[in-house]
Amino acid sequence: MTDFDVIVVGGGPAGSMAAEAAAKGGAKTLLLEKDRDIGYPVRCGEGVGASGLKQFIEPDPQWIAATISKVRMRSPDNTKVDFGMKDAGYVLHRRLFDYALANRAGRAGAEIQTRAYVDGLMVEDDVVKGVKYQYMGENRELSAKIVIAADGVESRVGRMAGMRTATKLRDMDSGYQATVGNVDIDQELIDFFIGSNWAPGGYLWIFPKGNGMANIGLGVNGKVAKDFSAHDLTHKFLKDHFPKASILTSVCGGIPIAKTLKTITKEGIMLTGDAARMVNPVTGGGIITGMVGGRIAGEVAAAALQTGDLTSKGFKDYPARWQKAEGKTHDGLHRVADAIFEITDEKLNKMAHRLAKIPPDELSLMKIFTAVARQKPSILIDVTRAFAGV
Amino acid sequence: MILVKDNRCDFCGTCVAVCPVDAIELREADISIIHDTCIDCDICIWVCPIDVLSSDEKKEEVKHD
Ligand SMILES: Cc1cc2nc3c(=O)[nH]c(=O)nc-3n(C[C@H](O)[C@H](O)[C@H](O)COP(=O)(O)OP(=O)(O)OC[C@H]3O[C@@H](n4cnc5c(N)ncnc54)[C@H](O)[C@@H]3O)c2cc1C
User: Fold this and answer.
1) A273 touches chain B (CB under 8 A)
2) Do A67-90+169-256 and A4-43+95-167+259-315 have the same topology in CATH?
3) Ligand 1: centre distance to CA A272 (Å)
4) CB A169 to CB B48 under 8 A?
5) Is residue B50 less than 8 Å (CB to CB) from chain A?
6) Pseudo-torsion of CA A347, A352, A354, A360, nearest 10°?
7) Which of A127, A173, A215, B16 is most solvent-facing, going by the fewest CB within 10 Å?
8) Which one, of A314, A328, A372, A311, lies nearest residue A347 by Cα?
């Protein structure tokens, strides 16, 4: 007898989805979160696409901060390219959103513990058999048939199982964000600033948060992060563009824009969400992709408990279903990101000057990324696959 | 040796994610470098979004991908 069928490590979107799916599938499930509060601190711009979100949960006004219908992209010389979104978008209050997801996992039957820091795994003959953790300073151990590591960007739990999760510098954006008040912005528009003057190797974003507030932040690619500070660049931007903004909170965080790990399962363990590197490598969005991965992991865990095969062979539907749902597009997007890295500021400006002449209702993400693919025709297929219809 | 100005650390874990030898321990509001494991490659210093890590030595430049 084990203490639990499934122990999920990490109470972000991926972990809560995994715990909910496992519990719904009949597994005795526990979720462990190291912080005192699910969903806090919020290291996130909080932007999601509406259709992606609605696969999992009906939007609730309690945790929708703003509804987005327009996109603006700006080049290094601040040329604006405007267009409407085919799919609406939302900016969330993740603190409440993450609560809602964890609450759902709890209602499905999962137990949840916060202030529970997993600092080791129980391993026998290379098979994961449970977790070691500290609960308010006290050392505890719990056995489980399956551990699901949803421990976010750090992804140390996978390493404890001997999996290689460390991310290369090229595959990490060094991020910083301030949530600000007293800014006069269009609350239906998300604004992206692309170019090395704004955010070298990444981009800067303004996401509205309702009531004259916004998330303003940026990511600097790891390759050039030695020479730039995400903190300094954000504060310089705020000073130059929103000198009257009041900074309500600020956070930093890493955005793993890597390809998904080649191996996301091992005897007794599955990795999901940021921990498995499921973030969209172009946009840095990882909320929805993490939910996709988390739900599949939880469902496959519950199914494996039925068959009793808890090896990576028994978990094989997980990587297969992830590959089908997101994986293929994801690999292509990593190639698209590489192509974007190569475009100089000068070329970005030229592209923007051309695109700015197209009426907003004739423009789409597909058209914009097709312009990118003109710089590197080998990614045209990837672009078509990822952006058809958006 | 890598040093942490821990009164300024935001505990975001970016350094942990890139550490090639898993030499950084991070809890809710507590970070420490495992100096016996650390290979002083310095990439944690570079990715830190708010520059709270530093090295106490001047070293030859190492190339990273
Ligand atoms: C600055 C920034 C802006 C972003 N903007 C967006 C955006 O606009 N839209 C979007 O979709 N995505 C965005 N992302 C990415 C998004 O935040 C993540 O992809 C998403 O949170 C991943 O969910 P997750 O559940 O995998 O991990 P997380 O949400 O990071 O959850 C992991 C949880 O595990 C816990 N944990 C870690 N280690 C342990 C341990 N040892 N024991 C117990 N618990 C542990 C952590 O405390 C954390 O709560 C952004 C990221 C950053 C850094």
Assistant:
1) no
2) no
3) 11
4) no
5) yes
6) 160
7) A127
8) A372
State the closest ligand 1 atom to the C-alpha of A286, by its place in the atom list counted from 1.
19
Architecture of domain B2-52: 2-Layer Sandwich (3.30)
Confidence (pLDDT) at B65: 54
B30 CB within 8 Å of a chain A CB: no
| Digit-coded pLDDT (tens) for A318-338 | 999 999 999 989 999 999 999
B28-35 long-range contacts, CB within 8 A, separation 24+: B28/A34, B28/A35, B28/A36, B28/A115, B28/A117, B31/B4, B31/B6, B32/B4, B33/B1, B33/B2, B33/B3, B33/B4, B35/B1, B35/B2
Give residue limits of the domains in chain A: 4-43+95-167+259-315, 67-90+169-256, 335-388
Q: Is B60's pLDDT higher than 80?
A: no
pLDDT at position B59, please? 52
Superfamily of domain A4-43+95-167+259-315: FAD/NAD(P)-binding domain (3.50.50.60)
CATH class of A67-90+169-256: alpha beta
Smallest Cβ–Cβ distance between B26 and the set A154, A174, A220 belongs to: A154
B12-55, pLDDT tens digit by residue?
999 999 999 999 999 888 899 999 999 999 999 999 999 999 99
pLDDT interval class at B58 (50, 70, 90): low
Q: Where are the domains of chain B?
A: 2-52
This model of the complex carries an ipTM of: 0.93
Give the per-residue SS3 of A111-125.
EEECCEEEEEEEEEC
Please check whether residue A205 is in contact with residue A190, taking contact to mean a CB–CB distance below 8 angstroms.
Answer: yes
